[in-house]
Amino acid sequence: MKLVVRFVVAVVLAVGLAGSVGPAAAASSGPGGPGHHPRFSALVFSKTAAFRHDSIPAGVAAIKQLGARHHFRVDATEDAAAFTDANLARYDVVIWLSTTGDVLTDEQQGAFERYIRAGGGYAGIHAASDTEYDWAWYGGLVAAYFRDHPGSVSPQFQVATVKVFGRDTAATRPLPRRWEREEEWYNFRTNPRHTVRVLAEVDERTYDPRGYSVPGGSPGMGRHHPVSWCQPYDGGRAFYTAMGHKAEYFTEPLLLAHLLGGIRMAAGETRFNCGRED
C-alpha cells in the first residue's frame, strides 16, 4: 500500500512540474517568479520622429533588467497606438526614453494628458526633452526643451562634475554629492530651476558647455545648470534626467541607481518629495 501511495504522489508531482514550465505559466509569472505581484508597472516608450539615438535598445534592456531585479513590470513599445485611455490605465509610470520629434497624434496626446491628470507618472530620459515642441502641455511636463549641446567648438562628450542635491529622494540617495562622469551635456532653451525641484546640476566650471546652435558656440546655462529634476504636474508626477546618451552609460551603476530612483518616484512607489506636493 505504501508503494502505491508513493507512486501516486510521484506522478502528481511530476505532472505538476511539467505543467509549470508551459507557455501559459511562463506568461503569467511576473517579476520575482510565479505568484509574485509586481510593485508597479512601467511602459517604456521610445518612438523617434527626428534624430534616433543608437543607445535606445541598451536603455530598454537596462530598464527591463531593473524591473526584473526590483520587482516591477516593464513593457516597451514604439507604437504610439499604445496611448489610449484603457491601455495607459494599466501603468503607474510611462518612461519616455530618448524620444524625438512629434511622436503622438492629437488624440493620443489627449489620452496621455488624461492619464497624468488621473495621477499617472512620467519619467523622461535624455532626448525626451527634444520631443513635441508644439505641444505646450508636454513642454510643461518635461519642464525644459533641449536647445543644443557641445560639439562644434568644444567636444561633444566631456567628463564633468555633477552636483547632487539632497539625500531625501530615491533618485539622489545612492549618489555622491559630487559625481564625475562623461556625458553629452544638454543646454536647454529655458532654465526650469524656479518651477521644479532640481536634483542635480552639472558644474560648467569643469567642462566647456558651449553648444553648436550659434556660430562660435552658444553659451551654456550659467552657474545653475540643471540636468535632473522632478515636479508634481497637472495631477501627476514627473521626473526627468538629461543623462543617458551612449549605450555604455546604461551599464553605469550610479546612473542606473539614479534612473531606478526616478522611475520609482514617478510611479508613486516611493516618496515623491518634489516641492509643491510636500
TrEMBL record:
InterPro entries documented for this protein: Class_I_gatase-like, ThuA-like
Alphabetic keyword roster: Signal
One Pfam family it belongs to: ThuA
Any coiled-coil regions, as ranges: none
UniProt superkingdom: Bacteria
Keyword Signal applies: yes
Domain annotation ThuA-like: ranges: 42-264
Gene3D superfamilies in UniProt: 3.40.50.880
Signal sequence interval, chain numbering: 1-26
Claim: Signal is one of the keywords in the record: yes
PANTHER family the record matches: GALACTOSE-BINDING DOMAIN-LIKE SUPERFAMILY PROTEIN, SECRETED GLYCOSYL HYDROLASE
Record's protein name: ThuA-like domain-containing protein
Species of origin: Actinoplanes auranticolor
